[in-house]
Amino acid sequence: MAFYQITKTQKLTASINEVWSFIASPANLKEITPGNMGFNVTSNNGSEKMYPGMIIIYKVSPLLGIKLNWITEITHIKEYEYFVDEQRIGPYSMWHHEHKIEPVDGGVLMTDKVTYKPPFGFIGAIANALIIKIRLKQIFDYRSIALESRFGSSSVT
Q1: What are the boundaries of each domain within the chain?
Q2: DSSP secondary structure code for residue 16 in this structure
Q3: Residue 155 CA, distance from chain mean position
Q4: pLDDT tens digit string along 33-47?
Q5: Closest to 36 measured CA to CA, from 57, 58, 56, 60
Q6: Are the CB atoms for 90 and 82 separated by under 8 Å?
């Protein structure tokens, strides 16, 4: 079945050091995730700085209040530029999330790019059209607002 991609770009009025320090800590994920997702980091490394190979375990309720374990691995990091998390166990058949930051005039340009494949083949494709794509957009819109509140921002896309 098909793969899908969502890209969200935002300018934050903060230094590259401030933004990197915030996004490189799993403990900060809850702050930028909608409360109705019941998101909690349950692995013992939630307050550590990310490193390649780091496994992060979450509890999350993406739909209908159903609690799921979601396990991701930090597969790539270039400090102050990007990191990648990939799902190892969770609700998707495939999940690859790139977090990029770059200095620009007046702050930092932050780009999130998620490539994903819903489970269940054709049923997953229908679910993506009706629910998943919309829900992911809501999550990234929330994230933009939370980051704007923390750092100041001018939305790009």
Answers
A1: 4-155
A2: H
A3: 17
A4: 998 888 988 887 656
A5: 60
A6: no
Nearest to 20 by CA among 81, 87, 111, 94: 81
The CATH architecture of the domain made up of 4-155 is 2-Layer Sandwich (3.30)
Q: At what angle do helices 133-151 and 16-23 cross, to 10 degrees?
A: 130
Q: How far apart are CA 80 and CA 95, in angstroms?
A: 23
What does the pLDDT look like over 45-85, one tens digit per residue? 656 789 999 999 999 987 777 889 999 999 999 999 999 99
pTM, two decimals, is 0.90
4-12 β-sheet, strand order: 40-41, 55-60, 68-78, 82-89, 94-104, 107-117, 4-12, 153-155
Q: Of 94, 91, 93, 57, nearest to 74 (Cα)?
A: 57
19: which strand partners?
none
Q: Which residues lie below 8 Å from residue 22, measured CB to CB, with a gap of 6+?
A: 28, 150, 151
The kind and range of the H/E element at 77 are: strand 68-78
Per-residue tokens: 39: 């998101």
Distance CA 124, CA 131 (A): 10
